Amino acid sequence: MTTDTTTQNTPDATTPGAPVLDARGVTMRFGGLTAVRNVDLTVGSGEIVGLIGPNGAGKTTFFNCLTGLYIPTEGEVRYQGDILPPKSFKVTAAGIARTFQNIRLFANMTVLENVLVGRHTRTKEGLWSALLRGPGFHKAEAASRARGMELLEFVGLTDKADHLARNLPYGEQRKLEIARALASEPGLLLLDEPTAGMNPQETRATEELVFAIRDKGIAVLVIEHDMRFIFNLCDRVAVLVQGEKLVEGDPATVQGDERVVAAYLGEPFENAPGAAEVAEVEAAEAHADATTDAAPGKENDR
């Protein structure tokens, strides 16, 4: 992945069915272990696609390959036809935003300030403008705050704008993370287990929020373990098992596939991985994540 597609404009994802994401042959190895193997996946604009699979299936690793946190060992990832750069901040600038399985907010910043962090890829003010704080800086700052408040209204957090993020209930922290991702004006939003730990009412509210995001012309790719949520939400669903795509199709097709049922019930099917193989891949992924978080200059904002 070498071509830099960084832009300063909001990506156009308003044409129904137009290709947004095209991942081809994505493979990710950690030493001798293969966490993701030859996975193809496309997402069209105005489409919600689900990615499911048992623990250790490689779903988050695949997400990390799409967003520049990992550089795939093999394969390529294209956004609106262009190969994505191997840097997460450039991927965000190109038009892909994401949330994380473990909430990553700036706990000691306010709700609005967290959203404003997500605006940095869409502002043009540089170092000197910030230091001199001239009219251009103040105009850009006011515009960012106005947009931030619009996004807080969209997710239902307007009245919490001045609260510290750490003081929000769990479900509202999830909403805030989505608002911060939307602040970068993405054409594609990746959600990593957005309903984890939520009660049924919060899950239903998240479902409605994702539909509202899609209605704004933003494509969505979502990882989730809540099968009812996924099958109610998604136009298509892809299933990963031990890093390989087992099946892909509409929710009815995936639900009726015997291999999917077997994978979730823990029953072996032909060429299914053993528990030891799954454990090895999970350990390799955890080690890679720990190495990334410990890298120089990496701020731990979880």
From TrEMBL:
* Domain ABC transporter: from-to ranges: 21-267
User: What are the alphabetically sorted keywords of the record?
Assistant: ATP-binding, Nucleotide-binding, Transport
State the source organism's domain of life: Bacteria
List where Basic and acidic residues composition bias occurs.
Answer: 284-302
Q: Does the keyword Nucleotide-binding apply?
A: yes
Q: Return the annotated region ranges for Disordered.
A: 281-302
Xref: PANTHER family: AMINO ACID ABC TRANSPORTER ATP-BINDING PROTEIN, CONSERVED COMPONENT OF ABC TRANSPORTER FOR NATURAL AMINO ACIDS-RELATED
Q: Which PROSITE patterns match?
A: ABC_TRANSPORTER_2 (PS50893)
* GO molecular function (one): ATP binding
Tell me what this protein is called.
Answer: ABC transporter ATP-binding protein
The keyword ATP-binding appears for this protein:
yes
What's one Pfam family the UniProt record gives for this protein? BCA_ABC_TP_C
